[in-house]
Amino acid sequence: MFISEVMTTAPQDERGALETKTYQELERLNIKYERVDNDTVEAMEECVEISEKLGAEIRKTIVVCNRQKTQFFLVILPANKRFDSKLFAAMMHTARVSFASPEDMQNVIGLTPGEASVMGILNDPEGKVKVVIDKAVADAEWFACNPGANTSHLRFKTKQLINNFLPAEKHKPEIIML
Predict the structure, then answer these.
(1) Theoretical Cys-Cys bridge with 147: which of 22, 71, 94, 174, CB 3.0 to 4.6 Å?
(2) Is 99 within 8 Å of 42 (Cβ atoms)?
(3) Which domain holds residue 151?
């Protein structure tokens, strides 16, 4: 798998709208980051080498919703943690949750399965999606994810995600132990 050298500046070539917006927003908020470009990845297992190169685990991000599709949750977990939908639904005080369809994901965060990232909240200015972070992720020094395209990954301090980025985008994360 191709993985570039680690870089500390935004890409100079043409990128997708969300990826471009991600780097602009990180710079606007003065959040320092490191990034790599890589071959397309679509599964967490493919991210192991990228995590090693960045020195931070790429986090698993999933989008779930209730049956009525009136509540959407962007859930961030450690890469190898299994998502327990019954436990999650109980913690969120909702009857049941299931994985959001590709169409629903596209509508609420502008991304599809395989490319889900917390950066998708940049496409949710009304705050329709609730961000839920596993405590193990929240307690880690570094946070790593894709910037809105699964051909690039970045890392920055988790505290900056929780205290700067998410509040600036009008998303207050709920931190729970899943």
Answers:
(1) 22
(2) no
(3) 17-176
pLDDT at 95: 85
In the chain, what is the straight-line distance between the N-terminal and C-terminal CA atoms, in Å? 32
According to DSSP H, which parts of 5-127 are helical? 17-28, 48-54, 85-91, 102-109
Q: How far is CA 40 from the centre of its chain?
A: 16
Instruction: Tell me the pLDDT tens digit for each residue of 57-68.
Output: 999 999 999 999
**Which CATH number fits the domain that encloses residue 86?**
3.90.960.10
In a domain, 57, yes or no: yes
State the average pLDDT over residues 134-141.
Answer: 98
Q: pTM of the prediction?
A: 0.95
Which segments within the chain are labelled E, that is strand?
34-37, 60-66, 72-77, 97-99, 129-134, 142-145, 152-157, 174-176
Residue 12, domain member (yes or no)? no
Residue 118, pLDDT above cutoff 90: yes
Can you give the pLDDT at residue 113?
87
Distances (CA, A) of 86 to 55, 58, 68, 77, 134: 33, 25, 16, 16, 15
The three-class DSSP label of residue 175 is strand
Examine residue 91 and state whether it is found in any structural domain, yes or no.
Answer: yes
Please state the domain count of the chain: 1
